[in-house]
Amino acid sequence: MDTLPPFKTGKPRVEQGYVRPLVGIELPFTIIEGGMPGPCLVVTAGVHASEFCSIEAAVRLQRTRPEDINGTLVVLPIMNVQGFWKRSIYVMPEDGKNLNRQFPGDADGTASQRLAHWLTSAVLSKADFYLDLHGGDLDAARAAFPDAPLPWVDLSTGINAVPFPPPELPPHAWTVTDFRALNEYMTGVIAKSR
After folding, report:
1. Omega of the bond prior to 165 within 30 degrees of 0, cis?
2. Domain of residue 179, residue span
3. Do 132 and 155 sit in the same domain of this protein?
4. Strands (DSSP E) found in 67-188
5. In the prediction, which pLDDT does 134 show?
């Protein structure tokens, strides 16, 4: 199929399959719709195709039962499929570009730019929330991380429990690249909340 099925049908369901957003690129997907209306959360992983921990987390999310959620959960567990099979650490083999740096994309660009454009225009435009999972890449350092909960959003109100992204960081619509500053900010927020 060339497009994803509708995210909201009004009926509890689990729908799985493959979508072909571009010629030569086929992505697995799962759509889980709960019995009650609610927000739509899109979860992606495998933008960096060797971040196996995030891919596994997305695969586990695909096991969510419709009766356990309100609204819709859309899971795209591996965005860079060829990178996964070729063990490419950061780039899409189709064009040698880092998909994570191509957003919001370009409909007339290279493969990664077109895929980013598809995700932005055809998928995220229909979502209320978006979560892109990362972590544990093949060349990632095995550094200790602080015991810090992530910022969360109350799905009934859409209000952040802690300000995120942090006001001290430069605004960026897609990723936070200054992890040291983010870590310092979150450590301060958590310390204040105790």
Report:
1. yes
2. 144-194
3. no
4. 70-76, 129-132, 153-154, 159-160
5. 87
